[in-house]
Amino acid sequence: MMQQDFLVELGTEELPPKSLKRLAEAFLNGVEKSLQEAGLSYAAARYYAAPRRLAVLVDALDTQQADRTQQMDGPPVQAAFDAEGKPTKAAEGFARKCGVTVAELDSSGPKLRYVQSIPGQAAAQLLPGIIDTALAALPIPKRMRWGARKTEFVRPTQWLVMLQGDAIVPGEILSQTADRSSRGHRFHHPDAVRIATPAQYAEQLRGAHVIADFAERREMIRSRVEALAAAEQGTAIMPEDLLDEVTALVEWPVPLVCSFEERFLDVPQEALISTMQDNQKYFCLLDAAGKLLPRFITVANIDSQDPAQIVSGNEKVVRPRLTDAEFFFRQDKKNPLEERNTQLANVVFQAQLGSVYDKARRVSGLARFVAGQIGGDADRAARAGLLSKCDLATEMVGEFPELQGIAGYYYALHDGEPEDVALALNEQYMPRGAGAELPSTLTGAAVALADKLDTLVGIFGIGMLPTGSKDPYALRRAALGVLRILIEKRLELDLNSAIAVAIEQYAQQISLAADLQAQVQEFVFDRLRARYEDEGIDVAVYQSVRAIGPASPLDFDQRVQAVQHFRRLPEAEALAAANKRVSNLLAKAEMEVSARIDQALLHEPAEQTLASAISEAEQAVAPLAAERQYSAALERLASLREPVDRFFDEVLVNAEDAAVRANRYALLARLRGLFLGVADISLLG
To answer: Which of 158, 322, 524, 668 has minimal Cβ neighbours within 10 Å of its Cβ?
Structure first.
């Protein structure tokens, strides 16, 4: 079977830059999926994407489908013919469905069967439909029409190239008739570009000032920006999303260095970076100390004979935005940050939970308690909590919402607040996402924990629990944030007590249901299950620790890590089974099980040996458990395997003598208690 390269390029008006890469990837996936469904093999496929085009190039595509057979089974032969051998209605209906007569059906097997030979079609006949289907399936939230046409696409289409080898594949898609004429750069090469073959596509467009390969264009921008930044003794800030977006804005990238007045550096650099990145799509430069340089890099879409004009134009455009940020910063500094709370008293946090100022006061009280528990400064945490929402009422955050917390940090420093109090105003929002940065100070950690716990308690208290994928108050993220801060920063906090204080802060604003405290705690600890699954820790390990209910997330994690380590020991499986057996025996005990063992009633050598081993283990494990050396404790308990196995092999627990029986249950209870000091390992079996 012959193979030829295939190219499709759809030319359009400028495509949405934030969506270009996603559209191109989806186009490629759609084409490949349809080719596979059609039974057309190929060697490789890749996409090209630029502001005015989406293209897919398929290497060595079959020019013809293979012939194939299609088999359809009908009713059983016994039901298909009557006693006289005449076809029944079932046979006639099956024949009509297949478009043949009953005589043409195969009746040699247990069922009627129709085998149809289907000749393969030429790829050229199938390709227009394949491309049309792939384009129709693109993830376009809102399609548009243009002119008098009813055709809909993300942007108006301008041309269509479809080539198989050196031949045009005839067809019409999205109101464009297939041809071999593409277009070059809008300014450098506005004339048509005649594509000779698919393999020559990228190079012919390069000659027309278009770098069609998205990845190549992206790497050109990245490497050139890095080189220009280094020449300015700086490093460029290049977030992946911004780099993708800039790549999608240009066909012939030409990065240029621009500058702005140094006086703007008095403004918080986060505000300057935000406006230059988000609004102008510039790459900002930092010096070796991480401070913003009065330089930025723009990526032009034209190789100008006078690049100074482009530089000057961009500098003129950015200046008013930086001036706005400077104005907001100066205006905000005229009033102390704390005075903003009077404005927040009129801003609703949640209709049933009061104003944003009410929340700040609750966070302040809870942060004081939390700081005392985790070793921080209670007074500073309370102060930071009181100021925590003030910057929401500033002009700067009104213009740049993403600067909440960051603006507060600068204003707090200006007001003379301690460094850790100022930092806490930003750190209260940490972590801002999965794997994101955690608070660096104990004051920041206390406020971050207090803010999240206050939200959890408040929203749970008014019954607005997250359901399914709906979580409007981001309670799952808040719970995960609490866990990450406590576990990863190794901070000790009794979650029960902290939740109780959070409930007290609300007074009569929430329903004081008897189980509210337990409900919030359970919700928080439930988030650990997914965390451990992501780390490759078996759910049984999590459940073994959850069963004993540690109140401290850090303690919970330390136990989980110890049990995970214990599972790798050769004694683990047998001891888990033994614990399960002990748990079942104790659960079915028809007496009150004592914790005291009567040595005089230990008649069998095996139970005497076990009692002695338990006593020794208790003395060895107690100090280890007290210091939370849970792995060492479980390793020590692993030595109980042999006496435990021997006990169950040689001793009848349910002895006829009631006193002996009770004593043996007491022995098992002591054994069980040893392991429960770390986790319920019976759940590992």
So the answer is: 158
Cis status, amide bond into 431, omega within 30 of 0:
yes
Structure tokens given for 558? 């330390």
Query: Which residues of the chain are under the pLDDT cut of 50?
Result: none
> DSSP character for 470?
B
pLDDT value of residue 196: 96
Structure tokens given for 338: 């704390």
Nearest to residue 555, comparing CAs of 623, 493, 634?
A: 493
3-state DSSP assignment of residue 321? helix
H/E run at residue 134: helix 123-136
235 DSSP assignment: E
Query: For the domain bounded by 566-684, which CATH number is listed?
Result: 1.10.730.10
Which residues have a Cβ under 8 Å from the Cβ of 108 and sit 6 or more positions away?
none
CA 656 to chain centre: 60
Could you say which architecture CATH assigns to the domain 351-536? Orthogonal Bundle (1.10)
Residue 81 carries which DSSP code? B
Q: What is the DSSP string of 386-428?
A: HHTTGGGGSHHHHH-GGGTTHHHHHHHHHTT--HHHHHHHHHT
Q: Is the whole-model pTM more than 0.90?
A: no
DSSP state, residue 681: G
Residue range 455-468, pLDDT digits in tens: 999 999 988 888 87
CB 189 within 8 A of CB 209: yes
Residue count (the chain): 685
CATH superfamily of 3-65+122-206: ACT domain (3.30.70.260)
Please tell me the predicted confidence (pLDDT) of residue 116: 81
Are 220 and 211 in contact by the 8 Å Cβ rule? The answer is yes
The answer to whether 390 and 365 are in contact (CB under 8 A) is no
